[in-house]
Design goal:
With about 280 residues, the protein is of the alpha/beta class. The chain has two domains: about 180 residues, Rossmann fold; about 70 residues, Helicase, Ruva Protein, domain 3 (Orthogonal Bundle), CATH 1.10.8. It is built from twelve helices and nine strands. It is elongated and about 65 Å long.
């Protein structure tokens, strides 16, 4: 692949901070990302934020089909140069967050994985949209800001553990598979990055009303430093006796804070609150 800076210069493209444009060019790293995503000739891949097509090109070598979304139309000639000859690649120049999920998934088929170097300014909304709304996504392997990666993959009772961690764990499990220093990007961002893998378990908490669980998670973390019993009382307008009864029924200690509860604890607590 041509030198990225030269290629961008030829087409007069200056990278924009507003789009979180920090591109990877290390083919060894890009290849490892695709490999760890388990992409093969049967895999359909959704890529968000194709940029100059460096990751797209590596995905296309392995995947059955790649549907890439790119918001910056100035990159059309660049992507035509880097992946225009790939028969299994389709680039859609739209804001993926404004695309209806049904329309997007009609292009992808029955199941797919997301492999992407996500724009950092919109990482959490993208990840949670697909985890909460899609029934077809099988997993995500994504490059994100290291600090965010630590939150996504945190364990209960740790400093980084929060509502977003629980939200991910309601649909699957996340782990860091590689750390990426800022110097590997063009241009280098102000932070280091990490590649995380989220394995989606389609039948995890089968039968649970996840909308209600998310409401309880929101209540639990509404005031992080307070004990859970107080947050439940405030959020659901319960008296103390009722709140304590629901916690006890769910097997949760009365002195617990939200950060002490696993996703399964929140499911049990939700059942106690709404069915108790």
């Amino acid at each position: 692949m041509e030198n990225l800076k030269s290629l961008l210069s030829v087409y007069g493209v200056q990278l924009k901070k507003q789009f979180g444009q920090n591109f990877l060019t290390d083919e060894s790293l890009l290849s490892r990302i695709v490999e760890k995503a388990g992409v093969n000739e049967f895999t359909t891949v959704l890529e968000i934020g194709c940029g100059a097509g460096t990751l797209t090109s590596q995905i296309a070598k392995k995947a059955k089909k790649v549907i890439g979304y790119e918001i910056d139309t100035r990159l059309k000639p660049v992507l035509e140069k880097t992946v225009g000859d790939k028969k299994n690649v389709e680039i859609v120049f739209k804001d993926v967050m404004k695309e209806k999920l049904a329309d997007l998934e009609s292009k992808l088929g029955d199941d797919y994985v997301m492999v992407a170097n996500l724009p950092y300014y919109i990482t959490t909304p993208i990840v949670m949209r697909f985890l909460e709304q899609s029934t077809k996504i099988k997993g995500l392997v994504i490059m994100i800001q290291e600090e965010v990666a630590q939150r996504f993959c945190a364990k209960p009772s740790s400093t980084d553990y929060g509502a977003i961690t629980v939200g991910i764990n309601l649909r699957g499990s996340a782990s860091v598979i590689e750390y990426v220093p800022r110097q590997m990007f063009t241009p280098p961002p102000n932070v280091d990055s990490a590649v995380i893998k989220i394995d989606v378990e389609k039948n995890k908490f089968l039968g649970a009303d996840l909308e209600k669980v998310r409401e309880v998670v929101k209540a639990g973390f509404s005031s992080r430093r307070k004990m859970l019993v107080n947050n439940l009382m405030n959020f659901f307008k319960m008296d103390r006796a009722t709140a304590e009864s629901r916690l006890t029924e769910a097997g949760v200690k009365l002195t617990s804070r939200a950060e002490n509860l696993s996703a399964s604890d929140f499911v049990a607590l939700t059942n106690a609150i709404f069915n108790g």
